[in-house]
Amino acid sequence: MRRLAAxxxxxxNQALTPEFLCLTLxxxxxMVRRDLTGAPAFCVRSxxxxxxxxxxxxxxxxxxxxxxxxxxxRRLDAMRGQPEEExxxxxxxxxxxxxxxxxxLLAGLFVGAxxxxxxxxxxxxxxxxxxxxxxxxxxxxxxxxxxxxxx
Amino acid sequence: xxDQRADGPMEQFEILPIVDLHxxxxxxxxxxxxxxxxxxxxxxxxxFFAATRRAAMIPGRIQSMAxxxxxxxxxxxxxxxxxxxxxxxxxxxxxxxxxxxxxxxGLLPSWPGLAHELHTFTPxxxxxxxxxxxxLTITIVIVYxxxxxxxxxxxxxxxxxxxxxxxxLLCLIEVISFLSRxxxxxxxxxxxxxxxxxxxxxxxxxxxxxxxTGSAVMLFGIAPFLGAIAVTALEFLVAALQAYVFAVLTxxxxxxxxxxxxx
Lengths: 151, 263
Fold this sequence. Notes:
The complex is a heterodimer. By secondary structure, chain A is mainly alpha-helical. Chain A is 67% helix and 3% strand. Chain A has 2 domains: 79 residues, no CATH class; 60 residues, no CATH class. In chain A, strand 1 and strand 2 form a beta hairpin. In chain A, helix 4 packs antiparallel against helix 5. Chain B has one domain. In chain B, the strands form 2 sheets. A two-stranded antiparallel ribbon of chain B has the order 1-4. A two-stranded antiparallel sheet of chain B has the order 2-3. Chains A and B meet through helix 1, strand 1, helix 4 and helix 5 of A and helix 2, helix 5 and helix 6 of B.
């Protein structure tokens, strides 16, 4: 059965070929029964973001109308219980975070120093605004840092 | 066998006009940077048209790829901004895909023997491009922040629950922190792409000059060659990651603007 499920899954990823349809019809009843209890092998997500299963007839003969997909989705969700916890903090996210943190401290300092330098040029008060700007910029960088670490 | 005229590592960033165009006194020539942006945009458009041409319930290969991109960004926007983030989805999606494709296309090898103007070019390795994208984001944040919250948007710079005498100082710090956002967005993307390309070029340059010696020293060329392969792999990761970070931060800033009054 495992192999069959893999086969169906493969076929489904290809396209809706006649062989696939044939296969589906033959094992449809069994698959649906299994899938309502176990992990669904053929759930696809569409552009509308809904969870959908294949429209396989319960008796596999194609005589009855398939139940509406929304209904199927609801039943599926109920059977599966709580959606499993996803972990968004993969290694990629961690990498991204590291790069963010390092550059945010620097950016604050840079902007502070730049503002100070500009004010000094304008008012002719070198180097006082630059010094204050570096101090404030460092503080702003730390503020950025603490904010991005809190998320 | 090899062209031994070693170009400097900076020549790949040179902006060269391909078609000279002038609008009054303004130079609006089509440059290699603009050309690669057009190529990238065209590729994106063709890809998504092909993917959505026959939207099937059971997606084919192209449609599956498009849906992965779509859902990835959609989840990101929804999780970061919340339910009213939906209206920013097109912007974040466009930004993400555009930066991703710019970064990735910059890793394509140039066609051998092509003129310098037509070599592969990475627009995101120029700070003016990334800064323009960052300024666009910050402009949207400011405009939307004032539109949604009115003057309460300024609460963003006014942290609550602190002694009054500390307020002016903290307000100043918050303003600088806010101003540093577009800069950190722009510099991060630009610096990552720039540095990666310089390192790649340096490694490749070592290989060429070591092989060019023609003696037993040639064997040492294997080390930078392996290095170049490793850096290329790393660059693929960096290209995707930087596009992701840019999109994430855009979402975070937009979320700040949407919820400024709740602080």
